[in-house]
Amino acid sequence: MGALFESQLFRASQGLFRGYEAGLPYDSPMNIQAGIQHALERIEATRTQYGASQKVALELAVKTRSAEECAQAARLLKDLGQPILLGHNRVQEARDTVDAIRSVEGSHVHLIGPLQSNKINQALACVDLIESLDSVALAAKIDQRLSTSLPVFIEVNVSGEDTKHGCQPADVDSVVEAVVRSEHLKLSGFMTVGLNSPVEADVRSAYALLRKIRDRIRVSYAMSKLELSMGMSNDLHWAIAEGATIVRVGTAVFGARHLG
Ligand SMILES: *Cc1c(COP(=O)(O)O)cnc(C)c1O
After folding, report:
1. CA of 150 to the centre of ligand 1 (A)
2. Tell me: the pLDDT tens digits for 137-173?
3. Is 132 in the pocket of ligand 1 (CB under 6 A)?
4. Which atom belonging to ligand 1 lies closest to the Cα atom of 257?
5. What separation in Å is there between the alpha carbon of 232 and the centre of ligand 1?
6. How many helices (H) and strands (E) would you count in the chain?
7. Per residue in 190-233, pLDDT tens?
8. Contacts of 64 (CB under 8 A, 6+ apart)
9. Fewest Cβ atoms nearer than 10 Å: which of 47, 163, 184, 224?
10. 65 lines ligand 1 (CB under 6 A)
11. Which family does it belong to (predicted)?
């Protein structure tokens, strides 16, 4: 690990703990701001460290955060000239916060958690993009409910862990076909939740697998751009090294979650 990267990590962790030191709750605006700034610095330091040439957007994973915190975070991203990306795990939480988030012009709400069939209409009413599309059946059901175009990412389980959502790598082609042949869905990228392991080689090879899937599909369908949404607070550096274009960060920006 390079010295620059280590110093960035140290500063990021300082940002994380500053709230406790100052006796402030994590949700104070100053801490969200520091958290976002540190996450952005960490992303840039990592790109330098690994010579990663792709742009990397910070998507805030906002589960359990209040509508006000979500709006605040969205405003901060906007003021920093960053893409305004907020990822929700639960449709209900997306519904509860979407009006506040939408008060910030240019904001995008993504669904990053599993989508049950009975929540599709509610989801479509409040999200701009679904990152967790993981089956042919779900693609068909979502497509049926749409009258306008919707961008989606296909979620792939590249870690092989049973507990993970996402289609198997072997099923990617059939899900891609379903999206491409659908009337309203637009394939815009791939998403995964990485292997839960401290072993760099193992975590990176799972992310590399998603990158190879993305590259292969991009070529076979002659698509110009497909995002790679991978990497979270703990391992975003390894995801960026393997080509992530979007990292989804919760804890490193907002602090530990106390609920849910
Ligand atoms: C919570 C969550 C994240 C962010 O995780 P942190 O470790 O808090 O950064 C990213 N992606 C998904 C799907 C999540 O549920």
Report:
1. 23
2. 999 999 999 999 999 999 999 998 988 899 999 999 9
3. no
4. 8
5. 6
6. 10, 8
7. 999 999 999 999 999 999 999 999 999 999 999 999 999 999 99
8. 93, 257, 258, 259, 260
9. 224
10. no
11. Belongs to the pyridoxal phosphate-binding protein YggS/PROSC family.
